[in-house]
Amino acid sequence: MAITASMVKELREMTGAGMMDCKKALAETDGNMEKAVEFLREKGLAAAEKKAGRIAAEGIVTANISDDNKVASIVEVNSETDFVAKNEKFRSFVDAVAAQAAKTTVTDIEAFLEEKWALDTSKTVKEELSSQIAVIGENMNIRRFEKIEAGDDYVVSYIHGGGRIGVLVQVETGNFNEVAMEAAKNLAMQIAAINPKYVTRDEISEEFIAHETEILKAQAKNENPDKPDNIIDKMIVGRLNKELKEFCLVDQVYVKDGDLTVAKYLESVAKETGSPIVVKKFVRYETGEGLEKKEENFAEEVARQLGK
């Protein structure tokens, strides 16, 4: 398979590895992007976790939460430019989408788009989106949503950077007072900042651990070709534990107090409130993650406009 410059560029943005290393990795894996990432990791040339790619698409993430903290939704709506993402009309529309998502009974975006628009039932959500595109004058997309109905638990939200990152956190506690609510907000901020993948290690599959172990083993062997396998095996136990601590929320260092883990912080909150506080679930959206914004050559765009 021919290796193109755009493939090399994409791999470099995903891993942070050098241009020539990326080119070699693609050549070695016949252009398979995921295998190329693993190749670079095994050589110690890429970060432990594959990045989603350059965050390029514009838009915002927002949340809607009930007064009793029992029901919440989070949505991402994309726009073409940051200028529109800051537009009040656009933001009001996204707020309305989040409010609709908090009341919906569907779970996939296709069904959501076919629902009646709550503010004008003569239209569907998709038709209202088209109307907003016509008014605002820029293409937009309701990309994704998630709703949490907490039942006996409670849910809080946190929006960072004017809508760049949004988080919902569901917690179980017998005393959801101001202290517990603040703790849940602090956890949401932690999730926004550090981006864990799981709440606890119990959520991590054996397949994932086996896969990571193989990569770390290959990496350690490349770095220490003269060491026997039994020494390599001992080395990767420590590396794997370190990696899993970064992936799991409760094992992470608490950002507001570097002397504590998140688990220890929650223990201190429990003593203050008189009731354990347990994270049951979280949702984290980052605007545009995994999307590539269409690149335009400014000179070509000007020439095209002048040629009209």
UniProtKB/TrEMBL annotation:
Pfam families (UniProt xref): EF_TS
Keywords of the record: Cytoplasm, Elongation factor, Protein biosynthesis
Cell location: Cytoplasm
One MF term in the entry's GO annotations: translation elongation factor activity
Chief location of this protein within or outside the cell: cytoplasm
SUPFAM superfamilies reported in the protein's UniProt record: Elongation factor Ts (EF-Ts), dimerisation domain (SSF54713), UBA-like (SSF46934)
Gene3D superfamilies, A to Z: 1.10.286.20, DNA helicase RuvA subunit, C-terminal domain (1.10.8.10), Elongation factor Ts, dimerisation domain (3.30.479.20)
InterPro entries according to UniProt: EF-Ts_dimer_sf, Transl_elong_EFTs/EF1B, Transl_elong_EFTs/EF1B_dimer, Transl_elong_Ts_CS, UBA-like_sf
Any Gene Ontology CC annotation: cytoplasm
Domain Translation elongation factor EFTs/EF1B dimerisation as annotated: residue spans: 72-289
Stretch list, region Involved in Mg(2+) ion dislocation from EF-Tu: 81-84
HAMAP family from the UniProt entry: EF_Ts
Biological role: Associates with the EF-Tu.GDP complex and induces the exchange of GDP to GTP. It remains bound to the aminoacyl-tRNA.EF-Tu.GTP complex up to the GTP hydrolysis stage on the ribosome.
Family: Belongs to the EF-Ts family.
Protein name: Elongation factor Ts
Organism: Mobilisporobacter senegalensis
Lineage of source species: Bacteria, Bacillati, Bacillota, Clostridia, Lachnospirales
